[in-house]
Automatic annotation (TrEMBL):
Essential cofactor(s): Mg(2+)
Protein name, per record: Octaprenyl diphosphate synthase
Domain of life: Bacteria
Source organism of this protein record: Neptuniibacter pectenicola
Molecular function GO terms recorded: all-trans-octaprenyl-diphosphate synthase activity
EC number: 2.5.1.90
Family of this protein: Belongs to the FPP/GGPP synthase family.
Keyword set, alphabetical order: Magnesium, Metal-binding, Transferase
Length: 322
């Protein structure tokens, strides 16, 4: 079951978001439309726009602008994917060729820029300076997070705190912006807005930590990308950071060497070390703690089916394999 199917009341709104996204990919440049449609229609759970819908609904919103707001969040997310795949030289995303693998790096970057600018065009139509402030700040933090991750690439001395800062920027920030913006649109109270902001922050962190785990546990078919991509790119994610901390001197040196050189030559021994040192369980527990914090934040919100769905999503996030 897809996340949007957890609540029948949200399904028509979710479909309206999908229609809105497709209808706003228009461009006078055919390649822009072609790449935009390819990446937007290539699958994915659309969890971030779904969070906008749920956040607005849980706070009692009755209007229509949450549809366009959800599309804004998805356009920004899609733009970051296009840019990420170029930076990481990725060739597989959601089980399909990446846009850069099909059309090259330059068109992928430029279409990513188009999607960013389209998101801000739609934001102007909504006309909320508060929402614009939240989302523009989020896009700035996301960009910083990507640069920070780039600086940490092939650096085996990356600390857990430093990596959590990367997660905040590259993933959690857009989750946070999605739920907080939904709350703003619904004219929520300060306490409800803060509750939804915290929910998004903690959920996004849990989501990324499980992504880190899946790089060592899942298959390419389950993930929709290549197994070992993080290691191949020399990313010192939390499982590797913990493995270096908890392993023997020999294991620590092997992991350090693998991070420094990148590639997949040592994938199997590194996967063995990650499992032997309890790094999988450690990272999963961190993700569970974040999911629990997300759920705890919702106590400030009224009890309704949309709150129940937000709780379900947090629980599903730490158990997923894709």
């Amino acid at each position: 079951m897809q996340p949007h199917q957890l609540n029948p009341a949200i399904e028509p709104q979710f479909e309206a978001v999908n229609d809105y996204i497709i209808n706003h990919l228009g461009s006078n440049v055919p390649l822009v439309e072609k790449i935009g449609h390819y990446i937007v229609e290539s699958g994915g759970k659309r969890i971030r726009p779904l969070l906008v819908l749920l956040a607005a609904n849980v706070a009692g919103y009755k209007g229509k602008e949450h549809i366009s707001l959800a599309a804004i969040i998805e356009f920004i997310h899609t733009a970051t994917l296009l840019h990420d795949d170029v930076v990481d030289n990725s060739d597989l995303r959601r089980g399909k060729d990446t846009a850069n693998a099909k059309w090259g790096n330059a068109p992928s970057v430029l279409v990513g820029d188009f999607l960013y600018s389209r998101a801000f065009q739609i934001m102007v139509e909504i006309g909320s300076m508060e929402i614009m402030s939240v989302i523009s700040n989020a896009t700035n933090v996301i960009a910083e997070g990507e640069v920070l991750q780039l600086l940490n690439t092939k650096n085996p001395d990356t600390t857990e705190d430093a990596y959590m800062q990367v997660i905040l920027g590259k993933t959690a920030m857009l989750f946070e912006a999605a739920t907080e913006a939904g709350a703003i649109l619904a004219n929520s109270s300060a306490s409800e807005r803060e509750a939804l902001r915290l929910y998004g922050l903690h959920l996004g962190t849990a989501f990324q930590l499980i992504d880190d785990v899946m790089d060592y546990l899942s298959t390419a078919e389950e993930m929709g990308k290549n197994v070992g991509d993080d290691l191949a790119e020399g990313k010192a994610t939390l499982p590797l950071i913990h493995a270096m901390r908890a392993g023997t001197e020999e294991q620590r040196l092997l992991v350090r060497q693998a991070i420094r050189k990148g590639g997949l030559d040592d994938l199997q021994p590194i996967m063995d070390i990650v499992k032997e040192t309890g790094a999988i369980e450690y990272t999963q527990q961190k993700a569970q703690t974040e999911a629990d914090s997300a759920i705890a934040a919702l106590t400030a919100l009224p009890d309704n089916s949309f709150k129940d769905t937000l709780i379900q999503i947090a629980n599903i996030a730490v158990k997923r394999k894709s």
